[in-house]
Amino acid sequence: TNTPMSQAIVDHAALQASVIATLVLWATVVFANFRSGFANGKAGKRMPEDYSEEREALVGAEEDAKRWERVLMNNLENVPFVTMLLLLSLLFGQDSKFHVTLSAVYSASRVLWLVSYAFGSKARGLFYIIGLLTAICFVVNILMGVF
After folding, report:
1. Rounded to whole angstroms, how far apart are CA atoms 116 and 122?
2. What is the pLDDT of residue 29?
3. Partner of 15 at 20 to 30 A CA spacing, among 48, 75, 101, 121?
4. Distance in angstroms (rounded) separating the CA atoms of residues 26 and 131
5. Which pLDDT score is estimated for 23?
6. Using CB atoms within 10 A of its CB, is residue 88 exposed (0-12), middle (13-18) or buried (19+)?
7. DSSP element (H, E) containing 30
8. DSSP state, 119?
9. Dmax of the chain from CA atoms?
10. CA 99, CA 1: separation in Å to the nearest integer?
11. Distance from first CA to last CA of the chain, Å, rounded?
12. Mean pLDDT lowest among 20-29, 93-102, 128-137
C-alpha cells in the first residue's frame, strides 16, 4: 500500500492537531520577536545604524519595549518545551482525542495569554495557568500511553 508513514504511526486527527498547534505556537514566537524588535526601535534601543533619521522619544516606548521583551522571553521559556510534550503526546500518548483537545486548548491559551499580556490585562495569569495545566495533562497522556 501507499500509506504515509505518519498515518501508520499516529491517529490522523491527532497528527493534524499537532501540526496546527505547532504552527500556531511558532507563529506566536515569531510575532513576539518582530513586535519586540519594533518596540525596541521606538524606544531607541536599537543600534544607531538602524535609524535613518533622528529619533524622537515617545511616551511609554521604553515600557512597551520591556513588555515585548518579556513576552518574547516567556515564549522562548515555555513554547519549545511544551511543543516537545505535544510531540511526545502525539507519538506515545494514550488517547489521541484527548491529545487533539489538549493541542487546541494549549494553543488558544498561549494566543490569549499573548494578547492579554500585550494589552496589560491581568487575565494573562489565568491563560498562563490554563496553559500550564494543559502541559501537565500532556505529561499525563504520555505517561498513560507509555506505562
Report:
1. 7
2. 81
3. 75
4. 15
5. 77
6. middle
7. helix 12-42
8. T
9. 65
10. 27
11. 31
12. 20-29
**Grid cell 504511526 — which residue?**
9
- DSSP conformation letters of 67-118: HHHHHHHHHHHHHHHHHHHHHHHHHH-S-HHHHHHHHHHHHHHHHHHHHHHH
Q: Tell me the pLDDT tens digit for each residue of 72-108.
A: 898 988 999 899 999 999 998 999 999 999 999 999 9
Q: Tell me which amino acid residue 101 is.
A: T
Length, in residues, of the chain: 147
Distance between CA atoms of residues 85 and 128, nearest Å:
16
Cα–Cα nearest to 25, from 128, 89, 110: 110
Cβ proximity of 115 and 62 under 8 Å: no
Segment 38-64, tens digit of pLDDT: 887 788 776 454 556 555 445 467 778
DSSP string for residues in 125-137 = HHHHHHHHHHHHH
